[in-house]
Amino acid sequence: MSSAEHSRSEPLVNESETKKTMQFFSSQESIEENVDNFAVQADIVDCHEKSDDSKSDCNHVKEMETSQEDMAANNNYGDTSLSSVTIVAPVTPRLFKRRWLILLLFASYSGSNAYQWLHLVIVSDKIIFYYNASLPDSELGQLFAVDFLSMIYMVVYVALIFPATWMLDKKGLRLTAIVGCLLNALGAFVKCFAVRPDLFWLLFFAQTICAVAQVFILGIPTRLAAVWFGIDEVSTATAIGVFGNQIGTALGFVIPPEVVTSDNFEYVGHGLSLMMYVGAGVTALLFILVLIFFQNNPPVPPSHAQVTAANTWSNEDYCGSIRRLMTNVGFTLLVITYGSNTGSYYAISTLLNSIVVYYFPGETGNAGNIGLTLVVAGIFGSVLAGIWLDKTKYFKWTTVAIYILSFAGMITFTFTLDLNHIWVVFLCSGFLGFFMTGYLPVGFEFAAELTFPESEGTSSGLLNASAQVI
Known about the structure:
This protein is mainly α. The protein contains 18 helices and no strands. The longest helix is centred in the first third of the chain and has 37 residues, at about 15-50. Mean pLDDT is about 80; it is low at about 1-5, about 10-45, about 50-55 and about 70-90.
């Protein structure tokens, strides 16, 4: 980053001091003008109090009086008292404890949506068994239909990314959070009515509603961190926001195989019903909590950089912002590389059950545990990366290192599946997850640094869209 560019991580002291100086001199000019006006007013009053013989000397004062009245009429400014002088005091940044509640709420409902992304495909064999009557006849068609319960998240995200980021930029965090949380709960409730062998189409419709909810969720972490947290906390806050989504993914890997365990038709249906009703209850509770407690922004910005960014957002041309982002060479490169890295993670998550069952028949339960290992390792990676970036601000070199190690982990994971040692798969999944999944918040924060003061919601939304496409 050149010295001429400003970063969001910089406190913008020079810009703030410049604004204060400009306000000071502007105020000085206003005071001087008002002092001159008082002098004129004094001359006018003194002239009016003189005797008729002395008023001949006041012609110049009358001219000034007339001139002053004309200026007031032309400028709509007739008050020449010192009380009309407005000195704009600089905003003092402040942090509020409630920021942690806002972040916790977001992480919770984001996690519940991530859980619904995977809780069906991780038991794909049980879904095919139970919904066989309403699935295609061919085995390939059945696998594709069930896998598309996960892939619909990617398709919908790409289709709706621009309306969702526009809402986040123009309407703010609260409305975006309410819409995402409401759709998430609605999709979970519809699933409760889809637990019948002939209603796979309804299950798919409900999953599509949850996929739409995701569009209003994934772009929030960086924006929430910027709006509510201080300069030295934004990377950690972003990591925690992503951490919630990863926890949900982990639960989506581990809970369904433990609930839907039997090969008996009725027991499979009972397990699915239990899973759906609990999910609906949790998402409904989270929606109520968001509706009551989730706030748009703090009363006072948390940093000087946020003051600048808020002014930019309020006057931002959304299409112009998209154009500037797409012509930013550094950001474009990040979009491509982030999409490749994170898209690979999404692909592994979607196909993990099929991969494990193919190489290790009968190990459906371990498919969920391998996914859990992948995500939990990524959670540690996310948090450590967030802390590291808050301390060092080494965004570029951290990104390069993670890409190299993720590539090494992917190669190792791919070529050790044939060894028929499932413990090796667990080990490789942990290594891969630590770097590949741990990179999610790093990418968001790097994008925000490259594109400041553009909206973090828009930049992170485009990163997520690239991952869904790839």
